[in-house]
Amino acid sequence: MTSEELKSGYIFLLDKPLDWTSFQAVNKMKYKLKREFDLPKKFKIGHAGTLDPRATGLLIVCCGKFTKKIPEIQDAPKEYWTEIKIGVQTESYDTEKPEILQQDIAHITEEQVKEVLEKFVGEIEQKPPVYSAIKIDGERAYNLARAGEEVEMKSRKTTIHYLNDIKIDFPLISFTVGCSKGTYIRSLAHDIGQELGVGAYLTQLRRTKIGEYKIEDATDQFLNNDFRFLGE
């Protein structure tokens, strides 16, 4: 890999670690690439689809002229490995906020869970979480929510292509979900809990695929001090 190759266009597949924002990951990439390859100040770099801080997995970073590919990659279907906990909720729909509204789940059966999951396959309506990066009047929704302001999220259509590899070990349920652009898996977890009547929230999320790109081909080498082998 050379500076000319990076400027001409390069795609990195990163395995984003827990508690990193996508912005932080790209910034660290940019700093290390510019230092290692003496790139210009205005070197173009960006990610093709945000991952929440509490999620791990595939983050695609495009460099140079390949930043033009970002919209195309963002439009591709996604796949995630997902774990949810039923019988309790959180305000953020994930582990960012503490558990609230605990309910008894003794009456919930595996058959009920599978029947409910099946209802979510296909085109669905969902509201994004208030703790999301969506802008409301120019401000990120999560900033408004963290400031204690009332946030009204509008429903949007999205598509769940499949829910596979379902494993049930109450109160935890895990599955692989294939979905369209713009799907919020935190909202899916919350809505599954509402359909079951006992609440639920997202405990783990790992993005495994974006279009043709797979987590198996990703690296976390960019976190190491030795940067020489990144992307090779």
What does this structure look like?
The protein is about 25% helix and about 30% strand. It has about 230 residues and is of the alpha+beta class. The protein has two domains: about 5-75 and about 215-225, Pseudouridine synthase (2-Layer Sandwich); about 80-210, Pseudouridine synthase (2-Layer Sandwich). A hairpin with a 2-residue loop joins β10 and β11. The model is unreliable at about 225-230 (pLDDT under 50). This is tRNA pseudouridine synthase B.
Draw up the topology in text:
Layout lengths: L2 H6 L1 E7 L5 H16 L7 E3 L8 E8 L6 H5 L3 E9 L23 H10 L2 E5 L8 E2 L2 E2 H6 L9 E14 L2 E8 L5 H12 L3 E11 L2 E2 L18
Parallel strand pairs: 3-10
Antiparallel strand pairs: 1-3, 2-3, 4-9, 4-10, 5-8, 6-7, 8-9, 10-11
What's a concise summary of this model?
The protein has 232 residues and is α+β, with helices and mostly antiparallel strands.
Query: What is the CATH superfamily classification of the largest domain?
Result: Pseudouridine synthase
Q: How does CATH name the architecture of the largest domain?
A: 2-Layer Sandwich
For this structure, what is the CATH class of the largest domain? Alpha Beta
If you compute it from the alpha carbons, what radius of gyration comes out, rounded to the nearest whole angstrom? 19 Å
Specify the number of helices.
6
Q: Tally of extended strands?
A: 11
Unreliably modeled segments: 225-232
Number of domains: 2
List the main descriptive attributes of the protein structure presented here:
232 residues, alpha+beta, Pseudouridine synthase, 9-stranded mixed beta sheet, 11 strands, isomerase, PsdUridine_synth_N, tRNA pseudouridine synthase B
